Structure formats: C-alpha cells, structure tokens
C-alpha cells in the first residue's frame, strides 16, 4: 500500500530557473497567492506584479500562497512603461502566454540560453498590447472544449511545466 509523503519526506531536485514572471494587472488575491505558490514550485527567479492598486494583502494572499510569497522575490510596479523599458534593456527571451493570431502551440515552443520574461495577463483582459508587442513568441495552450481560455494560474502552471522541461534539456 502507498503512503502519502509529507513536505519533509519528498526528495525533489530543487532547482532555480532564470524565469521572471510579469503579471499584467492580475487582481484577484486568490490568483496572486496561487501565482506565488506555482512560481515557487517551479523554481521561478522573480515575479513582477504590474498594475495600480494591486490588492496585496498578506493575510488573504497567504491562504493560497502557503507562505511562498515570503520566499519568491517580487516587485510591485505601477507603470507599464517601466516594465517595457526593463524588458527592452535586458537580453532576455520574452514569452507571452496569450492566444493571438500569430501565437504558437505550447508544444512548439523553443527556448534559448537567455533569461526568460514570461508575460501573463489579467483575469479579464489578458496581456495589454504594449507588452504583447515586445514578445519574441506568443504561446497558447491547445484546448479541446468549447471554451477558449482557462484560469490564468492554471495556464501558467502548464506553461511553467513545459518551459522548465525545455530548459533542463
């Protein structure tokens, strides 16, 4: 019979990846907390929370982050132009997780040895055009139902799974 392991009993290979997630106006506190949890699970280097008045309430975020918001480095940035300049000044791949008229399937994604900025959008509007225009690759997840989107954090988890597996190769 199998026995469920506790956190202290797992023997995962801890690894950090040169990935910075830029969340474009993510506002639901449950999603913000979940973003930290999934980012920590996949060894993400940093999170940039872009937007004005982001509801970063420690007590509420902690419910879904399981305290990972205290581990994963992050920055709150209100001005989109500052993030655009950051992207333009650095030698990094810019990947946008968004369905567009020129997006590719996640399974077709190719990465280089450069650090990665992963753009994810808001729960309602996705990624704003000024950021989308900076992306080297726009990537979407193939789905088989009638709905054309999924929760941003679920999609980010799927993207990070594929991305970290490509980087490890």
List keywords for this structure.
Alpha/beta_knot_MTases; methyltransferase activity; seven-stranded parallel beta sheet; Alpha/beta knot; TrmH family RNA methyltransferase; globular; transferase; 169 residues; single chain; methyltransferase; alpha/beta
- The CATH homologous superfamily name equals SPOUT methyltransferase, trefoil knot domain
- Sheet/helix structural class: alpha/beta
The count of β-strands is: 7
Total DSSP helices: 5
CATH architecture: 3-Layer(aba) Sandwich
Shape estimate: globular
Q: Give the domain tally.
A: 1
Q: At the third CATH level, what is the topology name?
A: Alpha/beta knot
Main beta sheet: strand number and arrangement? 7 strands, parallel
Q: Report the order of strands and helices.
A: EHEHEHEEEHEH
**Fraction of residues in β-strands:** 15-25%
């Amino acid at each position: 019979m199998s026995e469920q392991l506790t956190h202290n009993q797992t023997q995962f290979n801890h690894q950090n990846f040169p990935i910075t997630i830029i969340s474009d106006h993510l506002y639901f506190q449950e999603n913000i907390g979940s973003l930290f949890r999934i980012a920590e699970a996949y060894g993400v280097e940093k999170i940039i929370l872009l937007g004005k008045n982001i509801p970063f309430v420690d007590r509420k975020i902690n419910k879904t982050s399981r305290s990972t918001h205290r581990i994963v480095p992050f920055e709150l940035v209100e001005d989109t132009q500052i993030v655009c300049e950051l992207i333009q000044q650095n030698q990094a791949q810019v990947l946008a997780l968004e369905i567009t008229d020129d997006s590719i399937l996640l399974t077709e994604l190719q990465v280089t040895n450069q650090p990665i900025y992963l753009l994810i959008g808001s729960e309602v509007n996705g990624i704003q055009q000024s950021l989308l225009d900076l992306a080297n690759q726009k990537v979407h997840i193939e789905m088989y139902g009638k709905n054309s989107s999924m929760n941003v954090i679920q999609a980010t988890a799927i993207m990070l799974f594929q991305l970290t597996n490509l980087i490890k190769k």
